[in-house]
Amino acid sequence: SLRCGIVGLPNVGKSTLFNAITAQQVDAQNYPFCTIEPNVGTVAVPDPRLKPLSQITKTKTIIPATLELVDIAGLVRGASKGEGLGNQFLSHIREVDAIIHVVRCFEDSNITHVDGDISPKRDIDTIETELMLADLDSLEKRLEKLKKNARADKSLQPNVALCEKLIECLGDGKPARTVVETDEEKEILKSFFLISAKPVLYAVNVSEDDMGEGNQWTKEVEEVAAKEGAKVVTICASVESEIAQLPEEERPEFLESLGLEMSGLDRLIQAGYDLLGLHTYFTAGEKEVHAWTVRKGAKAPEAAGVIHSDFEKGFIRAEVIKYEDMAKFGSEQKVKEAGKLMVEGKEYVVCDGDIMHFRFNV
Ligand code: GDP
Question: Which Gene3D superfamilies does the protein's record reference (predicted)?
Fold first, then answer.
């Protein structure tokens, strides 16, 4: 399954956030393929549609979609040159599909900042620079090999060209994700396995007082993010860890007392899911309501394959009800009577919130 890696300088609040994540992990029993590793937390993707659906189909069993969040420790200035956990850190970050970058936007004289004072722009720069240096290193090695191979195989010319272009851009401080343009370039870029090509979102860690409005530092991050079209999610890691300690049934009241609708962690999970280019369809019956994760743009057979590969291989058709119709009419029977149950074939592109029933050959 797809993974978001959590990075950031020391003392920005990563461990505090990650502790909140592990405290809120899903019960591995319901997820037989769930990874159990100390630095990976599997969390439920919050979805306000699950509960109403379970009431409609009269089941108590709700299985939400999940997201894997990976704690990537050890990023310090010089990591690309082997400082700190250096290489270990780099191998972990190469394996994730997207990056959540935690940025310190809170002042606390008891908690030192590695570079002395609070300066989100500089911090973002420090981290980006390490990632880009690591990429430059791997691109330079790749370029040598590519040039050699391109002498015999002319079809590799575009690869050589992109490699050279990236080396130049990274040298100018531009991450790979911001420089590829054409589909061909995007396709080649995948084969380079660059860290700075991964999509990024910023989690700004603020003090409890600034959770609502943010502060001067969060504005600084918003400026950086706006330039590259990235999202910013405001959290207070210490409050998140308090929320995570509470029994689940007490959380809504606590959030309400803080004037929040959703915890920062839940907003972060939703944003991460979206960043990965994922959305949700449901299966809903008397036994359970189940949210399944599928790539945006995936067609019905691929979606069926998320449940079981046999569903994809033997796919015949899908019966689809829009969530809004189910909520409006209140039962599958009434949806059918209203003529709102659609029968779709192999070319159907699944939409977020579709309730699907697959017909397949075995
Ligand atoms: P890491 O090095 O990035 O993993 O940072 P930690 O999670 O260990 O946090 C460093 C210190 O900052 C710890 O003492 C935390 O309790 C504290 N801390 C984390 N988040 C916040 C916050 O939102 N506000 C304040 N005041 N302190 C925080």
Answer: 3.10.20.30, P-loop containing nucleotide triphosphate hydrolases (3.40.50.300), TGS-like domain (1.10.150.300)
